[in-house]
Amino acid sequence: MGNDPLLLKLKAGEPDAFKELYTAFYDMLYVKAFSVVRDEFVAKDLVQDCFIEIFEKKTYTLVHTSLQALLIVIVRRKCCVYLRNQRRLREKVQKYRAAEVIRQEFECIDFLSSHIQQHEIQVRDEKLRKALTNLSPQEKKVVDQVYVYGKSHADAAEATGMNHHTFHTYIYRAVNKLKKYVQLAS
């Protein structure tokens, strides 16, 4: 393929060469991108980005054998980057939602606590103290960091030496255990 006429036209800077490249390979690249990302609009955008990269960076000047192979590599790379970014975004959204649910639950608890009588607060506190003794050492540690020392989840995770995911798992379990114990003790 060293004598690919389209490659020679591109390297020579012929005006219609890029349009010819686009026409010759767009459909094939779209099918490949769509088979990976499963989204028509994203696949079209990724293929467009592929051609923009080829045009702006003039990577075809480095090709000695196959334009098609270069285009496939570029579109696959763009698909992989897109999928990796989407996965990271989903993970961030899930973490945010979990933290938001916990935050809302504690806001609700705080609201209710401010409206019950002092005696009820004392009874609840005693139940909570008993419930705290049923937590594992790790669960107790994360509860102390957040609710005794008033640290943010990120700071508390760092202080306990846990990664964010592990920390959120422990705090979630601890809160659920505390809720169940307090409800059973009622």
Short description:
By secondary structure, the chain is an all-alpha fold.
How many domains comprise the coordinates? 2
Secondary structure tally, helices: 8
Which structural class fits the helix and strand makeup? mainly alpha
Q: What is the share of helical residues?
A: over 70%
Order of helices and strands: HHHHHHHH
Number of strands: 0
Radius of gyration: 29 Å
- What is the strand content? under 5%
User: How does the major sheet shape up?
Assistant: none
> What is the CATH class of the largest domain?
Mainly Alpha
> How far apart are the termini?
80 Å
Just name the CATH architecture of the largest domain: Orthogonal Bundle
Could you list some keywords that capture this structure?
186 residues, rod-shaped, 2 domains, Arc Repressor Mutant, subunit A, 8 helices
General description of the model:
The chain is mainly α and 186 residues long. The protein folds into two domains: 5-87, RNA polymerase sigma factor, region 2, helix turn helix motif (Rna Polymerase Sigma Factor, Chain: A, Orthogonal Bundle), CATH 1.10.1740.10; 116-184, Winged helix-like DNA-binding domain superfamily/Winged helix DNA-binding domain (Arc Repressor Mutant, subunit A, Orthogonal Bundle), CATH 1.10.10.10. It is 81% helix and 0% strand. It is rod-shaped. It starts with a helix and ends with a helix.
